Amino acid sequence: MRTKKQASLFQTMMASFPSASEPQGDEDAHDPEETSPIREIVETGSITVSKDGHLIHCLTVIGQIEGHYILPAQNKTTKYEHVIPQLVAIEESSEIEGLLVILNTVGGDIEAGLAIAELISGMQTPTVSLVLGGGHSIGVPLAVAAKQSFIVPSATMTIHPVRMNGLVLGVPQTFSYFQKMQERIVDFVARNSNMPPKRFREYMLATGELATDVGTVLEGKQAVESGMIDQLGGLSDALDCLYSMILKHAAGESSRTPSLEGD
Fold first, then answer.
1. Active-site annotation holder among 57, 149, 160, 193
2. Relative to the CA of 155, which of 13, 81, 140, 167 has its CA 20 to 30 Å away?
């Protein structure tokens, strides 16, 4: 038999434990609003953050860019069917004011990469890219697609001709197709950077730079000196540039007044 004092102590101890009806586990115990940014990073590799009242979206392009075919599960990939809707949503958003694209990619599907690059280059939203590690192959157009591009000193840009896996027919039409695709890349890079097309082709077809391959590897400083990347810098430099572009963009929009047309 419990005394009244023992019964009171027992009730106090039991009250300190969560009941069966209360949510258990780490995910349910936290506020959904607090965990949503973490879930956004895990699920999409991107995040939207706010600073000084300005909302920016950070998009990461990592590993291999996955196109029309699904890559093996062990590959780190960036899926273009995920990125394209994000870019459309960012451009149409009335809240997001800037886009930061962080790249560390080994390349991948050419058409998928060019599709993403064309979307970024066609955005009115202020965009800044930052190359970390590497921007190889189709990562070059993605890096120059932003309105301002940055690269850290230790990163590299690898330029090489178009390559294809699988069955290839050894006919003139195949080589013509390769040449046309290469020209699409050359034209895009020339339109969105300060690198002349002739120099880009020279880098692309250089021999003696890559083992068992044709092409050129440019380190961070060389990429800037060549005119491919705009500036040498890190994350803080890229963010400062993006916020400066946001302020200029907002000032430009606020200064516009509707024109009056006569009858």
1. 160
2. 81
More confident residue, 58 or 256: 58
Residue 172: C-alpha distances to residues 164, 175, 182, 186, 213 (Å): 15, 5, 15, 21, 22
pLDDT at 63: 93
Q: Which residue has the tokens 């000196």?
A: 225
Considering only residues 118 and 51, tell me which one the structure prediction assigns the higher pLDDT: 118
Task: Tell me the CATH number at 99.
Answer: 3.90.226.10
In a domain, 238, yes or no: yes
Catalytic residue among 137, 149, 193, 226: 137
From the list 218, 225, 227, the residue with the least C-alpha distance to 197 is 227
Whether 82 is catalytic is: no
Decide if 243 is inside a domain: yes
Domain count along the chain: 1
Residue 154 maps to a domain: yes
pLDDT confidence of residue 9: 42
Per the domain annotation, does 223 fall within a domain? Answer: yes
157 lies in which domain range?
45-64+76-254
In percent, how much of the chain has pLDDT > 90? 59
User: What is the average per-residue pLDDT within 202-221?
Assistant: 91
